[in-house]
Amino acid sequence: MAHGSVGRILFANPIADVAGRHSLSFNEGTQVSGRECSRVVLSSARPAEWTRQNASRRSVESNGIFSNLKSNLLTRFKGGNQQSTSDKKPPIWPPAQDADESDQELTEEDDKPYVPEVNKDAELDESVLKEIASKGATEVRVVDVDKVFLTSQGMKRVVKNVSLRVEAGQLVALVGPSGSGKTTLLRMIAGLEPTSAGKVYFNDEDLTDVHVQDRDVGFMFQSYALFKHMTVAANVGYGLSTSKRRGKLTPEQIKKRVDDLLSLVQLSEYGDRFPPQLSGGQRQRVALARALATEPRLLLLDEPFGALDIVVRQELRTWVKKLQKALNITTIFVTHDQDEALEMADYMVVFHRGRILQEGAPFEIYERPNSAFVMNFISDPNVIPATCLAVRRSGYRTTKPYVLVRPDDVTIFYEEKLDLPTTPATVLEVNNMGPEVLCEIKYDDGVTLEFNRQRYDFEDQPLEVGQRVHLQLKPLMLKGFSPEDLKA
Ligand SMILES: Nc1ncnc2c1ncn2[C@@H]1O[C@H](COP(=O)(O)OP(=O)(O)OP(=O)(O)O)[C@@H](O)[C@H]1O
């Protein structure tokens, strides 16, 4: 659980203005000085990104004076993302006028305008789509699947009686903490790992004992898995010339297919390059082209964007989703990134200790998490004592010692509302985070709480440090928990 100290460190300093206009990515726990922070902010600035991110966020209605939005930024800011340093390709944007540029070490690269990773609005060639998506979408079912590994400590059951139905053409995200069994399930669906019990069906065909090569599945993994000594074109065409299709496709047909795929992933000019000559995002697009080359019935993506920096990842998410829909190819992807799942998936499956804890549309899961674990995993809630004044006033009752409160489930009023169970508090911090504002308040009993709001909510009547406010916690949005409930 990340209780946003990083956010406070970063924005309670003179660069708040700069930060307010740009996107950021930090690892949780990163200790930064104001100066370091300024540097990071400037190297990752790209205001254009804001509009789009903001538009894609999930809107949550509130009955107070604010409309609420769950903030991708908040989660990201509180450390949900791992930024690769090896493949980092920082987006460039001219530093803001009021930024302290004294310690900026600008390189030539910094002077170039930002070039998007992909053109998200590019028309997709219908004939190419048709050819690649020739098989039609496949429904996937796993029924009562178990996986037991024999380890040095004995038998380890890592997937426990899992059943799941993935509708044809859906984009499904498997999320959950590390070690919860997501990848193992993906590998069993692919045929890379045999099941210990249970069945795997594609449409109504039982593929449980069918070899991976005969399942017609395309893979894309975080680690690219491209052949470094082969050109991009050879990588993409590899499956075509080595699979059972050999003999079916002539070299000319293979070349045409490879050209089509490279055009699809917007890498037509890169066929002669070798993987080390590409950026991380480009390599992932090659990997995607290769995964699609054999016209798979199913696409399996394991942490596909995990090694990419946040801006490229954000762009590829949108683009991959658009492509997936255009191809109408059933796709299952594993991700650690809750925002990624919430944003991309049609359907989301939350894993915990080898079992499915909750599944459904991302919005439903976000709105109605069925446990403190799910709520904590997919959002980034505050933790407050169950006996504190605010919880008691809200009417929420629990036998658990703590309560989770999401930053966007708090309703704030400037005046006391006698007809509502509000609790008075003092504003401790107001941090401008671009389209959103992150605030911290302190109740009179000393309990602190963070919440986030759209910037425009504050335009008429800005919140100020030291100001008295009245907060309402909605009992239906609270979840009591004990520390062990949140353990991975
Ligand atoms: N071949 C194996 N032999 C023994 N144990 C394994 C093997 N593969 C995976 N495991 C164990 O199975 C459990 C589930 O692993 P899995 O990779 O499926 O989890 P995950 O949810 O995908 O985690 P992550 O997100 O970190 O990849 C882990 O405890 C892992 O150590």
Automatic annotation (TrEMBL):
GO function term, MF aspect, one:
ATP binding
One GO CC term, this protein: ATP-binding cassette (ABC) transporter complex
Coiled-coil region = none
Pfam family, any one: TOBE_2
Name the residue ranges with Acidic residues bias: 98-111
Q: Which of UniProt's keywords are assigned here?
A: ATP-binding, Nucleotide-binding, Sulfate transport, Transport
Read off the InterPro entries from this record: AAA+_ATPase, ABC_SmlMolc_Importer, ABC_transporter-like_ATP-bd, ABC_transporter-like_CS, Mo/tungstate-bd_C_term_dom, P-loop_NTPase, Transp-assoc_OB_typ2
Instruction: Give the superkingdom in one word.
Output: Eukaryota
Domain ABC transporter: start-end pairs: 140-378
Q: Protein name, please?
A: ABC transporter domain-containing protein
Q: Which organism is it from?
A: Marchantia polymorpha (Common liverwort)
